[in-house]
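Quick illustration, no need to memorize.
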Amino acid sequence: MHLLQHAPLYLLLLVLQAATEISATPSNGNTRALPRLVRRAHESAVRRTHSLARDLRVAFGRVLPRAETDDSNYNNGRVVYCKPGDQGVLGGPKTGGGEGSGSGSGSGGNSTSTAGQQSTSSSRGSSTRTRTSSSAAQPTATAVDSPWRLTNSYQGDTFFQGWDFFTSADPTNGLVDYIDEASGRREGILEINSAGNAIMRVETTPTVTGNRKSIRITTQAQFNGGLVIMDAVHMPHGCGTWPAFWTNGPNWPNGGEIDILEGVHDYANNQATLHTSDGCTIASSSSSALAISGSVIAGTDCSVGSTSNQGCGIRANSATTYGSGFNANGGGVYAMKWDSTGIAVYFFPRDSIPADITANTPVPETWGAAQARWPAASCDPFRFFNDHHAIFDTTLCGDWAGGVWNAAGIPGQEQSCAQRTGFATCDAFIRARGSAFQEAYWEVRYMQIYEEK
């Protein structure tokens, strides 16, 4: 029907073209001269019904001159789906990164710090390929918005704003005296270094008769659910040390405790752990069932009452996740996600930090397997955890480090600290060997707290 409707016009053009070609002299080998009126009429018709012109060329052979738009662009062009997410291009290569890369996701929007970090704008999306056209605008892919909103950020010269300095006795019975900010700066164990990173050290006086000075800080900000991200260049390690980056609720253990980054002595692999009241368990001890890269250790009961405060720990499978291996690799980023699906801990070495984290538009669903995960099915994250604050601390000896002074066999601790140091007890060692704590310091680039949008 379409062809018949426009047939008289094209038949007229054919007749006029044939008459013209009898008398026309070509100006070169590739061009025919047509009267200006006929050419304009023909080009207008082609623009209006490109497919009809193509059909007529098929029907009448190569009689009509071809339009300037190349049909190969229609035959071989890519179709772009303007959807969010890791979308491929039909007929072309898939765009975006694989597991753990963080590529292919992003956000257009601003993330604003509340503790000194500059606002950062980021617009990210998948690269696309579209058909060539001299008249049509090119479609673009739609960027994915992060489901998380930055609420608190601690970085640079103002890193220590928004924290409370804990100065009470160590609840874990460590041989440390936690001191306030002014005292920490005066004693030289607290500073912002020339790189703009926060430094929290342990006192290294050669010998002491009592405790060593140290730093423990707690965010003034409180959260129920959220995404906590921390980038560190260096963390404390060595015999006698017990550093941790963790979150904690009120009325322990009823408010719950989430140990994101923790270990003792010369351990090489991070141990992420939950400590709760009765009723919280890990759904399975199988790493594949939990979709994690780490391994469940000790047991699946997270209750402090039935585990003598051990909780339910999951050990990382990499020696770059903690201690000297972490430091030698330039550190990396830890992230803890707490939402309706449960609680999960992720780690990214320095050379594998997802771009969406760097852009302050995190999309955890693109990060691949978590290091540790506690699904909501067997541990309701909003029943066993509430009103949390984030915490950095370094204690010495104490319940855990002191209790395993003579133990060996943990990755990184193939020989006990008693054997390595020649000291029978942890307490005796830390009081007599201040020089052993030169590496017992945190160097933190930033810490952030996000909430779900």
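The first helix runs from residue 2 to 23.
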